[in-house]
Amino acid sequence: MKNGLNEREFLPRLLFKGRNLSKTYGGNTVLRNIDIDIYRGEIAGLVGENGAGKSTLLKIISGVEPPSTGEMEMNGSPYKCSSILDAHRRGVGMVFQEQSLTANLTVAQNIYRGRESRFSVLGLVRWGKMNAAAQKVMAAVDIRDIPPDRKVWNIPFAARQRVEIAKVLDIVSNATEDRSLILLDEPTTVLSREEMESLFREVRKMAGRGNGVIFVSHRLSEVLELTDRIYVFKDGEKTAVLKTSEASEDILYEKMVGRETTGEYYLSARQALPSDDVVLETEALSQWGVFIHVSFKLRRGEVLGICGVEGSGKEAVCSVLCGDESATGGTIRVNGEKRTFVSPKDALDAGILSVPRNRREDGILGMLSIRENITLSSLKKLASHGVVSLKKQNEEALSWVTRLGIKCSGIFQRISNLSGGNAQKAIFARVLGSDCPILVLDHPTRGVDVGSKGEIYSLIREITKRGVSVVLLGDTLDECIGLASRILVMKDGIVTGEFDCSHGRKPSQVEVVQKMM
Amino acid sequence: MERDHEKRAAIADQFKEKIRRETRGERLRVYMPIILLLSLSVLFAVYDSRFFSPANITNLLYQMTIPLILATGITFVLLTGCIDLSLEGVMGLAGSSIALLILNTKNSNDFGAIGVLVPIAGCALIGAVTGLIHTKLRIASFIVTFAMGSITAGLAVLTYRGVPAVIKVGWANDLSVGSFWGVPYLTWIALGIFAAGCVLLYCTAFGCAVYAIGDNELAAKASGTHIDAVKTAVFAICACTSGIAGFISCVRLKIGQAAMGSDQLFPAITALVIGGVSLSGGKGGMLQTFVGVLIYTELQNFLTIIGVDAYYKKAVQGVIIIIAVAMTVSRSRKTISK
């Protein structure tokens, strides 16, 4: 038992304090002046849309990344850490969303990974002792049905999550004499109702011993059920701190979505009127274990937005549409004709081209010039008898650079030297030059400055007017509603809502968020 | 709303089923090579009764000696997700220098056991250097080890400058023909090294670290593993076993020639892959290595018995490695690994 448990403990005492925490990546501020307090014995919730800054804050607290500015305190003394191990030594541990267990080691070996020396004699580890110790650690979080000497790949998925929690708990509670802080990042995503309830019991027990817990989840009902206080984030800023007893899903929705931009920003007056021709239609499209029964019709000149939190299945739907992954059920029809895509080439042949989200990794060919990048998808058009005409290629590239106002020193400049906005415009030039009638735009304005955003919106309006149809994953909910003529909302792999978004009839963000979370 | 609930439950079930299938696949991976070994043994014995004759069993034990030693060392490297292509060169260098340091035809050296141990220790040092270059300069292991293999093979020839040394010590002959309980001494040495490999992999924190790195390097780092140190150590271990294999080869051939290493890398890697040690790291272990070496040796031996041409044997080897990798590799990744 830890010492110092007396009546003082019943007064709320600060466990962790963060002041003015900010994080900037290459000029892009993702977290702005966050103040956060966690008291002993408290379970604090962190909610917000994608990109609101929750994960960044967790990374800073858990030692994965240092903050750009700001100070932190843990147990009353300054807290600065340069690694996860450092954080562990100060009693801060994080349970990652992605499981970090080694599949080919046993449960016990995983729990004591890096701490085997306490069981070693002359370098040889006494597994019996380690297993017995692991059994106790696991019993503390109610895992009794799994032998500690079983390999991790051989235990159920949900159990792996609990082993991970047991491990982190044991590390931090052994590392410091004082109270610890546990960060849980979306721990419930893969759990069933019963498993989740057992997790909640554990979390409450942890807090009952005076430790602090930060719980992040997209599922508001869970946050409301488990936490004492809720921090709400929006666009890297803290928009509210509420006592859970005074919060409700509706209040949280409102705080999460923040300010709404006027329709003019997204040029919604220029929104093309949907025609009756259906260019792309899916029926009961499914991917095994990821999403199920997604049906929609995309009309000529329409922008169809798909909204949802990360992991809702919207990314997978896009991957299937552009042939990157295959569907396991349902049909895709392009212009009424049934198609199956095995590779992106098949999708391209059917007239579907995608603009990937990670521009730097998946979108541009960084080593090549602007010219090559722009004309990549239209080389066939520029070639005669298989030989590409350099003259035509130059003309084509130059005309796009002028038309889209790409700021560069010339068409031979390496594309990797362009700013985010200009590189994105070059990619748009490539996409537009290919004359594909259907575009899948995955976060087209991510990491792009405000000015270029406007130009990209205008470009989208222009191409849809010419009859191009767009499937859009917006960077923000606001953008998705603003740009789209219709939106599909997804949650946990199913479509939970569909909204008409034509000019003047846009739904509010709150309405959409309610279907998302 | 009710429909949504059903759909959600369906997805959750599918996800669970997916994990179950993965687990099943993993089990298959563990038992497949053993089943393959048993069925091949039966098949070979039925096809040709000479296969399990006492003389041929001794043959098999001889033939598995060097592959087993090399495979034990390279298992560590493969488990971390790296590869070592230098073992042929290192083996040749060890064999050549040992021949020059013990009683031989080329010079008057006669250092005995020291003349054997120092070159083997030197090999371990070379491996450590390889590991340091790989980790500190961040050069892919296949490049570093390829270059190291070339360097060591060159050095091996340089040690004897054209005419290799023939060893004259009496114990070399005793060692290479003698046996204990029907198992040749040299095979006992191989089994001893294999046992040491098992202890190192399964009974130490180092072994856990090797698996952790192969499975997920970033996660391993986060749990406090000194990635660079462990990787350096695995290359040192592999080079050390290559050195020992060079010694065995030298004793057997009675001559310290750089060429003793040639065509030794492929059998070792083939054996590992057939046994179920993943080329991408983290999967497999010493049991898989042992089973793989047995399968490989039996197959080679069988092809010889039934009189298949040596060049066909090489081609068969290549086909086997492709089939074995194709059966075990995960094809879910979108890009083909380089």
Write up what this structure looks like.
The complex is a heterodimer of chains A (517) and B (338). Chain A is of the alpha/beta class. Helix content of chain A is 34%, strand content 26%. Among the domains of chain A are: 7-100 and 176-257, 3-Layer(aba) Sandwich (Rossmann fold), CATH 3.40.50; 263-351 and 436-516, P-loop containing nucleotide triphosphate hydrolases (Rossmann fold, 3-Layer(aba) Sandwich), CATH 3.40.50.300. Chain A has a six-stranded mixed β-sheet, sandwiched between helices. A six-stranded mixed β-sheet of chain A has the order 18-21-22-15-23-24, sandwiched between helices. In chain A, helix 14 (390-404) packs across helix 15 (420-433) and helix 15 runs parallel beside helix 16 (450-465). The longest helix of chain A has 19 residues, at 157-175. The model of chain A is unreliable at 1-9 (pLDDT under 50). Chain B is built from 13 helices and four strands. In chain B, a hairpin with a 2-residue loop joins strand 2 (179-180) and strand 3. The longest helix of chain B is centred in the N-terminal third of the chain and has 46 residues, at 2-47. Chain B is globular and about 90 Å long. Chains A and B meet through strand 8 and strand 14 of A and helix 1, helix 8 and helix 9 of B.
